[in-house]
Amino acid sequence: MARRLASCCLVLALAMGLAACGDDDATGTDAGPSGGAAGGLPPATAATLGTAGFGLGIAAALTGPLVPQAESLRDGGGRLDGAARETRTRTDVEAGVSGMSVVMPSTCVAYAWAGLSVTATFTGCTLETTGESVSGSVGIAVTYFPTTFTVTFTSLTVGTTSVDGMLALNVGGECGGADLGCMGCPDTDPMCAAMRMNQQTLTGALTIRSGSTTVLGITGLAVSNDATGVTVSGMFTVDGLAATATDLHWNMGDCLPVRGTVALPSMSTTITFLPTTPSDGIVQVQLGAFPPFPQMLFAACT
Prior knowledge:
- The protein is of the alpha+beta class.
- The chain has helices at 9-16, 43-63, 67-75, 82-98, 193-198, 277-280, and strands at residues 103-104, 109-114, 117-127, 133-143, 147-158, 161-172, 201-210, 212-226, 229-238, 241-251, 259-264, 269-272, 282-287, 293-296.
- It is 22% helix and 40% strand.
- The chain is elongated and about 60 Å long.
């Protein structure tokens, strides 16, 4: 499968204040007299959306491929004791990181385990979901009852951008006896509210440094993984601005989503990713009451 190495509009937008990548006038694809807001999105709005797209891609790439292993451990690993649980946990986590998989090739990762926690060091790796190069280390801690994978990293380099962060992937499951805030919920009970609320829920924060520093807060994203790629939906913030992602899907190896929307209510702006967005960087923009118009907000995947 061909892999695409991303170059996000974020780098130029944040460093230079441009509204879009690849346009001579730095205003994106002009919608024309009947297309919408003259000149496209304001530069600040375009930069915020560039940050959002880049950060959500990192979150999807680092956690989406772990969902099958997290659910496998929820349904089986937590019922094991001692060494058996430790062995099962380590096997499943490594399968998610470099098997089916957060990064490729499988030989680019070195693991250092301590109990149910691991430091995975990436050297010459590529994020399988987005096709972007990645180097540095991530920590992954697994807890049970309910089952959570907590991924932490400092100065992780994605493409040419440095990122710090913490992402907690919660897939639910039965509660431990010592957890007074958790309602007991058998894995086989599909009607259990506690299970349903926690399924494939992602929370956390990313600090993205590229020219300037931007914080992406993930307050409640649903993340899923299938043979085609990773999908996220839910609430997040960009430097405190509330935002919503809806059915945002990355095809495996594409640096940009091929469908879904990102909305910034405070800016009255929604962008819709198209099947062609990875190849040309163009999204459909809804700005206030103006008619929708196309604008090139990202550099195309290469």
